[in-house]
Amino acid sequence: MIKKQKNVIIGGGVTGLYLAYRLCKRGEKVVLVEKEKELGGLLACFNLGGVRLEKTYHHIFTSDKNIIKLINELGLSKRLDWHKSSMSLFWNDYFWPFGKAVDLLKFRPISLVDRLRTGVISLYLQKRANWKNLENMTAETYMKKMVGRASYKVIWEPLLKSKFGKEYKNVSMAWLWARLNSRGGSKEAGVEKLGYMDGSFELLIKKLADQIKDMGGKIITECTVNKVLNKGNKVDIKMNGKKMIFDRCFVTLANSDFGKLLNGKKYGSYIKKLKQIKYLGVVNLIFSSQQDLSDYYWNNINDTKSPFVAFVEQTKLVDKKVYSGQHVYFLGNYMDTKSDIFMASNDKIKSIYLNYLKKIVPSFDPNKVINSRVYRFNKAQHVVDCNYRQKIMETKTQLKNVYLLNFSQVYPRDRGINWAIGSVDEFLKELTK
User: Fold this and answer.
1) Which domain holds residue 209?
2) What rounded mean pLDDT belongs to the chain?
3) Looking at the structure, do residues 232 and 377 belong to the same domain, yes or no?
């Protein structure tokens, strides 16, 4: 009889949960540890007026085959609904429709010639399969050349700045290709369809956790891992002041967070490599109101003075009846974790965000906000520059039987639950060879 491995998984986000689920399906012994009270990571939910909602806005595309397959496998397919999306671009004090090809043709802030160039290049990138000769070129250089300086200044530069802050000039065109390519694959007859689970994506998190437990796996929350050490062929884990020994360890934390668990004297050069990838944090304000403030689900705020880049009305995707007849909104932005806004109090963030919302939507009355919450995550987006491929860490680490899996290894695709699942499947194929 083949001896089953005793595995520990550090991190209870989608990557960790899905890996635990697959290992349990193989009959392996699994212990998953998560420092927070709730599972899910960036997909974790909270209670908004009696309804569960993600702390960061989430949806999936029709092209996200990995997550759709998993939802079907877990028997949740009837809870996945597909909705027509709608989008705008805020520029010069106006919300311009921006979800269809015809909207681009009517987008007067740039010339007709630039509109046509932008449409042709966007369609080309959505359909293009080969991306490798784009990775050593910045998105700024490529888009200025292909769509023109005016279009770049109005449409693309604000997107890059809002997503990557001061690093925007260094972002690889491969990242922008992946962004456009994914969205292009989610359109039917020119209309974008987005998927959302009836009851929130917490259904997926809970189902995975239940399946893990039903198969004999163990999940420990509010558990802090302090050290990861090798002990012969075994892995010695120190967590909450206690030691446990495992055959294998899978770390699903961000690179730099993994480095903090290692012996600095022994693995100094390796830890230095782990720190090469830069991360940005995200700050989201989520609130509900009786006021209907937008005609669109997703509003890109292309004013670089805005404290948030995304103004999302959840109830333009999902019927407001789900949220007791209230309209639900996300205001979010990526930023340096040392920035003034990221380090501000929740009340200050709320004030900054809502004051700007009042500026761009004059009818908005902050006094009519019913429920509101602020959430921030330290490592929500990694910076994909032109040398990014050389910075990607291998899943096999310098510690014997210790493996690293996180969204920074998903390339050139942007981070997301679909690609997290796909990366685990690919890793497990290699692990069994």
Assistant:
1) 6-58+201-276+393-431
2) 93
3) no
Q: Both tokens of residue 213?
A: 């437990």
One-letter amino acid for residue 308 of the chain: F
**Domain count of the chain?**
3
Tokens 């042709």, located at residue: 120
Domain membership flag for residue 83: no
β-bridge pairing 279-289 and 327-335: antiparallel
Tell me, what DSSP letter sits at residue 57? -
Domain presence at residue 1: no
Pair (220, 284) in one structural domain: no
39 phi, psi to nearest 5 deg = -85, 165
Regarding whether 164 and 122 lie in a shared domain, the answer is yes
Residue 179 domain flag: yes
Query: Alpha-carbon distance 111 to 123, whole Å?
Result: 18
Q: Tell me, what DSSP letter sits at residue 328? A: E
Distance CA 13, CA 43 (A): 7
Neighbour tally for 387: CB within 10 Å:
12
Strands 87-91 and 94-97: antiparallel
Q: What is the pLDDT of residues 339-352, one digit of tens each?
A: 999 999 999 999 99
By DSSP bridging, strand 45-48 and strand 51-54 are: antiparallel
258 with 397, same domain: the answer is: yes
pLDDT tens column, 22-35? 999 999 999 999 99
